[in-house]
Design brief:
610 residues; alpha+beta; 3 domains; 26 strands; globular; Calcineurin-like phosphoesterase; Calcineurin-like_PHP
Length: 610
């Protein structure tokens, strides 16, 4: 039987880091020849004269009592040679959104995890916990009597309370920032001030982390650092460029062919993960993926995953969706009949649910359990809504340093509103069009048929941009991963209308003003991409709408403004209402109805500067 080294962690909570920070420091507790015999006897029920347990081969892919599941898991490992220095276990907590008035479910969740950690400490000692951020509730929680409108999320009290909760598990923990963790807008004037309090509370030297959990096995986290200064919605999860550079350098320095295995943790998933997302919330608002509104950075994460096969799994939260859907876990490859080849490198992506019922979008209360060794790893569910029962969701076996085989361990669970929680992504068998430079002058996307709620069609423009129709809406998709990026036209604007793509480029390289040719240009590279117009037309009324792209060439609407900007807008409206009451002698109700706002930039091409 292989022997185990029981380790006692010497460092303070959250401060054990590698690669540029303090290296991990361990002290052996007892001898390296510490025997697993007591553990094996306990598993077999022989300790203290108990009757031996008979069925240690229980089906771990079903939700079963945690003690039985853990016994079966330990027995499975012992049957395959036992625990060694490559063995590890990580508890992964999704969006906590702690409300200090509602701590009962957090205490229950804590009690579900403690025996899991204790078993792992006894077996091998390589244990840690990772919180995926969004630590506090984004509403007033009666926590500050002097400011009854203050949000709890992002405050000093929030982070100190979250740190106390995370330390109570009695294992080393790491945490990364989500889109609500810098929301202490009444307490802090800048993101930097808020971030410093977040890091201080959790003993973090940086927003990111890197922990060596077992031999050549790293836990790596990247945190959101921008809220007040977000270019669009403040709830976009933004990893700053310095972290991206650090992450890329780490992957370069820890290659798969040297045996490194890296598990990544972020609040939101990267574009290209293939995980189930919320169309009515995260896609429409542009806060679905990491760095969603920055096209170059948004693509960067999946590009790094494709290039560096050391990235074995990537865990995220953000969506508040359960772990019973099969697409809460996605593998590096899928059958081609299910969709375009995703090219996710060697990485498995996993969605993590929530602990408290009041924060769940589908009623599920679940956490992730990750356990593995040199041969592979398992992704499991700890179900807090069912008394802490555990289920094996997926097994991943390493074939070599750059390839693995993943298997779903249970069937997809049916949900009452399943379609609501899943955004259409282009797949094989749907109608598709390539409206590129080699095609005719017109692509009749819907073949002069009006769009209905059942219409599913997608097309690629000459520019490479991908558009598609689902649930009566026009969406833009990433050109490489075909992940949904955002809303172009709402169902209100699109239903009952047909779509076509027509040529709009310069003919024979002539630039014309009205009917008079003004200037002839050479056909250089600038004009080689075919210029096209996406038009939506009403078949009965004859009206035509041109869908104009943004300045950067994208089509999806970045419609949600920064939260600080929106708060200022509300204050300006209130000031205008007050002006109407005091200076125009309107009553308050009348004043509210009379006030309107206008925004830039200009939306027409008419008008000249004189």
């Amino acid at each position: 039987m292989k022997q185990s080294l029981t380790l006692t962690l010497l460092l303070h909570w959250g401060s054990q880091h590698v690669l540029g920070f303090a290296p991990p420091v361990f002290l052996a507790s007892g001898s390296r020849s510490h025997s697993l015999k007591p553990l094996q006897e306990a598993v077999n029920g022989k300790a203290n004269g108990e009757t031996p347990k008979e069925d240690k081969k229980r089906d771990r892919s079903k939700l079963i009592d945690s003690e039985d599941w853990l016994d079966a898991a330990i027995q499975s490992t012992l049957d395959k040679g036992g625990f060694d220095d490559s063995s590890f276990l990580v508890g992964i907590l999704g969006d906590l959104h702690i409300d200090p008035r509602k701590m009962d479910e957090y205490e229950e969740g804590h009690d579900h995890w403690v025996p899991i950690f204790e078993k792992a400490k006894e077996a091998h000692g390589n244990v840690a916990m990772v919180s995926l951020g969004d630590l506090g509730e984004s509403k007033n929680c009666d926590h500050n009597p002097s400011n009854p409108s203050e949000l709890f999320a992002g405050t000093t009290l929030c982070h100190e309370m979250a740190a106390e909760f995370l330390r109570s598990f009695d294992v080393p923990y790491e945490v990364i920032g989500g889109n609500h963790d810098l929301e202490g807008i009444d307490e802090f004037r800048t993101d930097r001030q808020n971030l410093e309090v977040f890091m201080k509370a959790h003993g973090k030297p940086t927003a990111q982390f890197c922990r060596e959990i077992a031999d050549k096995t790293l836990l790596v986290g990247l945190g959101s650092t921008i809220f007040r200064e977000a270019p669009f919605t403040s709830h976009e999860v933004i990893i700053d460029q310095a972290q991206i550079d650090w992450f890329e350098k780490l992957l370069q320095d820890k290659p798969a062919d040297e045996g490194w295995k890296i598990f990544v943790f972020t609040h939101a998933p990267p574009n290209g993960s293939g995980l189930r997302v919320l169309q009515e919330n995260h896609v429409v608002n542009g806060c679905c993926w990491l760095n969603h509104s920055n096209e170059r950075q948004c693509k960067k994460f999946i590009e790094l995953v494709r290039e560096h096969r050391c990235v074995k799994a990537w865990f995220s939260g953000h969506f508040h969706l359960g772990q019973d859907y099969q697409d809460s876990i996605t593998f590096p490859t899928i059958p081609r009949e299910e969709g375009p080849y995703p090219n996710r490198g060697s990485c498995v992506f996993a969605q993590t649910s929530v602990m408290r019922g009041g924060t769940s979008r589908d009623g599920r209360q679940q956490s992730r359990l990750l356990r593995g060794n040199k041969d592979g790893f398992e992704i499991c569910t700890v179900d807090h809504g069912k008394g802490g029962q555990i289920r094996l969701d997926a097994t991943i076996t390493y074939r070599d340093d750059s390839h693995e085989v993943g298997i779903y361990m249970h069937e997809d669970e049916a949900y009452e509103h399943d379609n609501y929680f899943k955004v259409y992504q282009p797949t094989e068998g749907d109608r598709e069009y390539y409206c590129g430079a080699e095609t005719d002058e017109e692509c009749s996307i819907t073949e002069d048929e009006p769009v209905t709620m059942d219409t599913k069609v997608w097309w690629r423009l000459s520019s490479g941009r991908v558009l598609g129709v689902m649930d009566g809406m026009l969406l833009e998709y990433d050109s490489s991963t075909l992940a949904p990026l955002g809303l172009v036209l709402s169902a209100e604007e699109l239903l009952g209308r047909a779509i076509a793509v027509v040529d709009s480029g310069i003919d024979d390289c002539i630039v014309a003003d009205d009917d008079d040719a003004m200037e002839t240009l050479e056909c250089d590279d600038y004009y080689q991409e075919r210029e096209q117009a996406v038009i939506v037309h009403d078949l009965e009324k004859g009206s035509i709408t041109v869908v104009q792209p943004n300045e950067d060439g994208s089509y999806w609407r970045k419609i949600v403004r920064n939260k600080i900007a929106r708060m200022k807008e509300v204050r300006r409206v209130k000031a205008a209402i007050q002006y109407g009451v005091e200076r125009l002698w309107l009553d308050e109700t009348e004043a509210k109805k009379s006030v309107q706002s206008t925004w830039g930039p200009y939306t027409t091409t008419s008008g000249n500067a004189l």
